[in-house]
Write a structure and sequence with these properties.
A: alpha/beta, Rossmann fold, four-stranded antiparallel beta sheet, 7 helices, 10 strands, B: mainly alpha, three-stranded antiparallel beta sheet, elongated
């Protein structure tokens, strides 16, 4: 069963007397542990697709299912397994990276000691353990992205949605951050959906798709062989 | 299909397509080629020699044949050559049709795409399908690029060059698809709307 499945999803917006089409008959399947990058120019329906995948917006037609459950019927527990990673969000001043990463856990009433430990582990996994006590004003974009990723994975999501993760990141650092995203996906089995305006975020993507004129082009479902590969433990997979 | 091997490179395909549209001679083909593919210098330029070369190759491969014309009684062989009309043979027509119907190679040249857009089935639906297939080929190419490790500086430079080249194609495909759709039902940028 796919982690995320969109079937013939359509979305239109009405503006005055005009009806504008954002998505036409879009189908998409994401398997656990794979990274899918959806590229598309401005106005291609990218943001709409992202919101629908993250469950923050409902389609006009078609179906969206997360772990086999209709996206409108998710229990709070399932709902929490979908994480929209906001890479441009900067926490309020006065909070360090460690506090920022543990916030989602504190919201779930995880005891502070335990939350701090989990946050530290998450920061270690993204290679940002040394940033735990630094503050937003000191972060360069690539560090902010690592910290945002740590915050996103700290609760162990099954679906991670990232909008233009490498925006503003130095081109030279870009590929190593994308490789990190792929490693996190493969190691922890989190299905990862990335959108990007240009093709800057394709490195590390297992599939690359294109939204063009509201239609999704490319391999919209993983091949059977890919699924078998994805279900093997990360340590045994071919690189 | 053996004809495919005979038809490369692109200039030969384009000339065959033009002769298939209507019988023609060398000088006229040079002008027609320019009107269709090259009247803007950055589109696709070939030299007149390449067009004559393509005619020779196509005749040798029996994909086109000379036809007798009223005006073909010239003195020198050079002038006879210039005014020789050609038409497409049965084999030539079949080869062109088979090539147009065959799936595109994974990374087609821009010339190949232009030939398909000009000589192919001209219905919007067929053109959309053609563009969709081309986009899919580009996406597969991007997946290969994505999976290519780039350790050294040279590898990174080459990888970035390939990525940007494919990105430019995808942007063109977006434009072509919007062009086919017409001004009616354009998708819209969500955030711009208030």
């Amino acid at each position: 069963m796919s982690v995320l499945a969109l079937e013939h999803v359509g979305k239109r917006y009405r503006r005055g007397h005009r009806e504008l089409v954002a998505l036409r008959e879009v189908s998409l399947e994401l398997e656990s542990g794979e990274v899918v990058c959806v590229t598309g120019a401005r106005g291609s329906g990218r943001t709409t697709l992202l919101r629908i995948a993250a469950g923050t917006e409902l389609p006009d037609s078609g179906r969206v299912r997360f772990a086999g459950v209709a996206i409108g019927d998710l229990t709070p527990e399932l709902r929490r397994q979908v994480v929209f990673c906001n890479t441009r969000f900067l926490p309020a001043h006065g909070r360090d990276a460690g506090e920022h990463v543990m916030t989602p856990l504190l919201a779930l009433r995880v005891p502070r000691d335990e939350a701090g430990l989990l946050a530290h582990r998450a920061l270690e996994r993204v290679g940002a353990a040394d940033l735990a006590f630094t503050r937003p004003a000191d972060w360069i974009p690539s560090e902010a992205l690592r910290i945002a990723l740590a915050r996103a994975i700290v609760r162990g999501p099954r679906l991670l949605v990232l909008d233009e993760p490498t925006n503003g990141v130095d081109a030279v650092e870009r590929d190593s951050l994308l490789a990190l995203i792929q490693r996190l996906a493969h190691e922890s089995g989190v299905a990862t959906l990335i959108t990007a305006g240009e093709t800057t975020s394709v490195t590390g993507a297992d599939r690359v798709l294109r939204l063009s004129d509201g239609e999704l082009l490319g391999r919209v479902a993983p091949a059977a062989a890919d699924v078998v590969e994805l279900r093997r433990p990360a340590s045994e997979r071919s690189p | 299909m053996t004809g495919n091997a005979k038809l490369k490179p692109s200039a030969r395909l384009a000339v065959l397509g033009l002769v298939l549209e209507r019988p023609s001679y060398g000088y006229e083909l040079v002008a027609r080629f320019d009107r269709v593919f090259g009247d803007q210098p950055w589109v696709w330029r070939v030299t007149p020699q390449a067009i004559y070369g393509a005619l020779n190759d196509l005749e040798r491969d029996k994909l086109i044949e000379p036809i007798a014309t009223g005006g073909a009684h010239w003195e020198s062989s050079a002038q006879r050559r210039q005014r020789q009309d050609y038409r497409v043979t049965g084999d030539g027509a079949r080869a062109m049709r088979a090539w147009l119907a065959a799936p595109m190679i994974s990374n087609p040249s821009r010339e190949e795409l232009l030939i398909r857009l000009h000589f192919g089935d001209a219905s919007d639906e067929a053109l959309r399908e053609l563009l969709r297939r081309h986009a899919e080929a580009c996406l597969q190419e991007l997946e290969r690029i994505a999976a290519t490790p780039a350790e050294t500086r040279m590898q990174r430079l080459v990888k970035e060059d390939r990525r940007l080249a494919v990105q430019a194609r995808l942007s063109w495909i977006d434009f072509a698809r919007a062009e086919l759709r017409g001004p009616g039902e354009r998708p819209v940028r969500t955030r711009v709307l208030s």
